[in-house]
Amino acid sequence: MSLDKDKAVALLNQIMELELAGVVRYTHYALMVYGYNRIPIVEWLNKQAEEGLLHARKAGELVTLLGGHPSLAIGPLLETHEHDNSLACSVPVGDILQESLAHEDKSLNLYYQLLELAQGKSVVVEEYARAQIVAEEMHADAVRKMLRQPCETGK
Fold first, then answer.
1. Its pTM surpasses 0.85
2. Residue 151, SS3 per DSSP
3. Is the four-CA dihedral 60, 128, 79, 34 of positive or negative sign?
4. Residue 34 pLDDT grade (very low, low, confident, very high; cuts 50, 70, 90)
5. Which pLDDT score is estimated for 87?
């Protein structure tokens, strides 16, 4: 059995596009936060943008490893618009985190698809997918914890 390189490249390009959209999304979010908790929240959002760029680069490197051409596209941006505020006031951080969690779920879905495609066929792609799943699961967990109220247990 061998890896279907065309399907793998297509998935990796989708991952790269989604991660690049995350860079734009998190950068935008960081600019939209105001208030006395701004500094740590903006720092965290900027860190997520940097991580998304690293993830996009890794996906692109695998695209070229498999003989493919990295996409120049960027995934959907700000599609929910739930964090918009016509008064241009501070964006509720909870809305940003909910959108972030939805974005992470999309990323995880693609990484799991890639893992399924690569299992037993490509150690490099399989290990990449596993490592990214761990990173995305941990990030989603951090977001879910930030969405909880103090003393609230997990769901």
1. yes
2. coil
3. negative
4. confident
5. 44
Residues in the chain: 155
Compute the distance between CA of residue 56 and CA of residue 18 in angstroms, rounded to an integer: 8
Q: Are 22 and 49 in contact (CB under 8 A)?
A: yes
- Please state, in angstroms and rounded to a whole number, the distance separating the CA atoms of residues 136 and 44: 15
Domain 5-68+90-147 in CATH 1.20.1260.10? The answer is: yes
Q: How far apart are CA 11 and CA 51, in angstroms?
A: 19
What is the CA 143 to chain-centroid distance, rounded?
A: 12
What is the reported pLDDT for 120? 96
Give CA 50 to chain center in angstroms.
Answer: 11
Orientation of helix 38-65 relative to helix 123-147, angle to 10°:
160
Judge contact between 126 and 113, C-beta under 8 A: no
Domain boundaries, the chain: 5-68+90-147
